[in-house]
Amino acid sequence: MEIIMASWKNKINQTKYGIIAGLTLPLLGFFIGFLAQGGDMSFSTFWQIFTQNHDLIHVNNLKLIYQDTRQSTAMFCLLANMLAFYFSFFLNKLDRFSKGLVFITLLLAAVSVLFIY
């Protein structure tokens, strides 16, 4: 049984798989954020709130709601990568996979900071 597990770990322990996981898991986190925060609004309305430029909104309370929704959703997206990092690096010792995952997570975090603020 350990031979099968070692073979599986050797196959997935590549940087490209970490990059692929780092790009797909935030999409899953976005949908989880939509389910957690979306309430009764449609997905298109939630997407509009997420992508709308908050500088165009002149009502201060509405601007804060949009910015808070954007921040919370970005946290759900990055939290999915953090969870994958925990399982890949600390539990399974997949170093190269984790390297790709951390690279994409840092890149997405920088883009989200620019996008939110």
Q: What structural category characterises the helix and strand content?
A: mainly alpha
Q: If you compute it from the alpha carbons, what radius of gyration comes out, rounded to the nearest whole angstrom?
A: 17 Å
Reported for the largest beta sheet, the result is: none
Helix content: over 70%
Low-confidence runs = none
Number of strands: 0
> What is the averaged pLDDT score?
84
Q: How many domain units? A: 1
- SS strand fraction: under 5%
SSE layout:
Elements: H1 2-12, H2 15-37, H3 43-51, H4 60-91, H5 95-116
What does this structure look like?
By secondary structure, the chain is mainly α. It has one domain (14-116). It is 83% helix and 0% strand. The protein has five helices and no strands. Helix 2 packs across helix 4 (60-91), helix 2 crosses helix 5 and helix 4 (60-91) runs antiparallel to helix 5.
Describe the structure in brief.
The protein has 5 helices and no strands. It has one domain.
Give short descriptive properties of this protein:
single chain, 117 residues, mainly alpha, 5 helices, elongated
